[in-house]
Amino acid sequence: MNRMILVCLGFFAACFLIDPRVRSAEPPATATVPDFARRIPEYRSGDPMFQFNGKDLSGFYTYTNKHHYEDPDRVFTVENGMIHVSGTDFGGFATGGNFGDYHLIVEWKWGEKTYGSRLKAARDSGILLHCVGKDGAAGGQWMESIECQIIEGGCGDFIMVGGEGKPSLTCTTRRDPAHRGELWFDPAGKSTTRDSGRYNWWGRDPNWKDVLGYRGPSDVENKPGDWNRMEVICRGDSITNIVNGYVVNVGTKCSRSEGKIQFQSEGAEIYFRKIEVRPLLP
Q1: pLDDT of 134-168, one tens digit each?
Q2: Cα–Cα distance measured from residue 15 to residue 45, given in angstroms and rounded to the nearest whole number
Q3: CATH 2.60.120.1440 fits 42-281, yes or no
Q4: Most CB within 10 Å of its CB: which of 16, 28, 210, 230?
Q5: Cα(8)–Cα(219) distance, rounded to whole angstroms?
Q6: Among 163, 220, 252, 204, CA closest to 23
Q7: Tens digit of pLDDT for each residue in 66-93?
Q8: Which is it for strands 124-132 and 144-151: parallel, antiparallel or unpaired?
């Protein structure tokens, strides 16, 4: 391969922030990935205005159900350049400051251990966006927010996490008559606004079960132990959720457009090696 081609490939990777260490998920041959999931929206983002430094939790603070702002159980530690979340207590680590109009890049992978009520359930975590209000207002451990779900089989769902208020989000969705109340993201669907519940990502298995190790036929999340890359584009009142290079969910008319960002501990061991918050450019 000649020098000019190598230079061009390097430039392309830099522009789209591709990390060669993260493999995009390859859905099973029987699965159909819709065209809209392959169309990444156009955007430009600048250098990180906030990021995990690979050494400690500078810029973050922790909060758990049992011990609040103290962490005697070491639920959150930094080791080998990664944030290790044990999952032994429900809670999260959150940014100290608020953010709006940003491009969030997160690289994470599941650990092996699960605990308590989630011992035999699907590995569970999440990224809470536009967090406002009191710590622990939601369930005694989280903040009022919009969640980009990280759970086996449902990575990419949106969940409205109520606190002192009830945040709302609008999605275009389709409904499966066999599953009343369940909505799946579909750009050709019907516009729906909710202030509670969940919007499924487009490929979530209608027969999903809350069991450890669950894999759906269309999952774009990589298997446990492999790294995943989640990117979230928050522009104004819209949120675009991208998992391993596929657009999995898009919300608009969000009742919140800025706030803290919180990363959950929810009964499953999980590691984070990259967290970057980049400003969106005009």
Answers
A1: 999 999 999 999 999 999 999 999 999 999 999 99
A2: 9
A3: no
A4: 230
A5: 32
A6: 220
A7: 999 999 999 999 999 999 999 999 999 9
A8: antiparallel
